[in-house]
Write a structure and sequence with these properties.
With about 250 residues, the chain is α/β, with parallel strands linked by helices. It has helices at about 55-60, 75-80, 85-95, 105-110, 115, 175-180, 205-215, 230-235; strands at about 1-5, 35-40, 45-50, 70, 95-100, 130-135, 140, 145-150, 155-160, 165, 185-190, 220, 240-245, 250. It has one domain (about 1-250): 4-Layer Sandwich (Metallo-beta-lactamase, Chain A), CATH 3.60.15. It has a seven-stranded mixed beta sheet. Helix 1 (about 55-60) links the parallel strand 3 (about 45-50) and strand 4 (about 70). The longest helix has 11 residues, at about 205-215. It is globular. The chain starts with a strand and ends with a strand.
Amino acid sequence: MKVTFLGTGTSVGVPAIACRCAVCTSADPRDKRLRSSVLLEDSGRCVLIDTSVDLRQQALSAGMTRLDGILYTHPHADHMLGLDEVRIFNFRQERAMDAYGSEATLAGIRRTFWYAFEDTPPGGGKPQVALHALESPGTVAGLPVQPFQIRHGVAAIQGYRIGEFAYITDCLEIPEESYAVLRGVKTLVINALRHKPHPTHQTVEQAVRAIERIAPETAWLTHMSHDLGHARTEAELPAGIRPAHDGLVLQV
């Protein structure tokens, strides 16, 4: 399976608006981070994890030509506001797009994108999306998907395991039962916001501890703020753990 990092930044992206810090003004292209999302490709099938607010730009950069399904981690703005961009795939593929997530996530999507799910005048101005609850193992566009719960502050959201690959974002804590789901994962993507503690997101140090417990062969950090410069963070991390960057492609 091919995994493309479409975005590895936090909710405001990097550079942040009106910020002149060393990372926001860095010349290293790896320090330019759109909002977090990945594209999974296998046997001609394409699945997004989250539709970030930057989806149009990400799809153009990645050369996306089709989309077969969407997995949602949670209904916060940076992870779902790109849903309206799905219209172009509706036009090209002449069908509604299947999207999956927890019941709570789907309820949030329905509230935010009410016009897509209510009877409004016909036209091309709204995405056609079929929402499906996915809170236990299932299949999405032919891929075996196992959702698991993580804590985003006090909110329960979802990570996903697909074969020997797992994706976690916006996590503060991994429940014990989810560690069991993650046993045997070889490639792990997990969020690490910054070094300073945060009420809803892991620090780099907390992410490293979680990685050491899960024990994948390789681990990649995502959802990083402008507190973390790529080169310095990479140099400080233990072996087998690296910061991801926008445009990075893995074969897992």
